[in-house]
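Researcher: Structure for this, please.
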Amino acid sequence: LKEDPNEFGGYFIQNGIEKVIRMLVIPKRNYPLAIYRTSYMNRGVNYTPYAVQLKSVREDLVSQSLTMHYISDGNISARIMYRKQEFLIPVIVILKALVETTDRQIYDKIVKGQTEKSEISDRVEIFIRACLLYTSPSPRDRQ
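Model: Predicted structure, token format:
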């Protein structure tokens, strides 16, 4: 059989019965999947139907799903489930919480010298400005 390596699923005939295999039944492990779902717009103000979902699985088969939602103002929000509660946290807040660093260092790491590509640098600036709504500037940022 010749199979298309880029195909997520398809039609199969087994014992004369047509079977349909879909990617949504069991998402591929540790593989990002871009999703367009209009119900995501109900999550909050300015949420769009666009998201990226990733199901991370450790070697001991414990899994966790992470969904990152694109917001119409250019920000990205991560959906995290904790004790059966859903939390939508801006990605920049998570980045600042993981490592003690300045906004400039975060900007430089993400942009990586590609300042001529305005779509990248503009989005990173939006992330950093949005973070100021949730946190106060650290002493290192004031320098």
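Researcher: Any notable elements?
Model: Helices lie at 91-98, 103-111, 118-134, 139-142. The longest helix spans residues 118-134.
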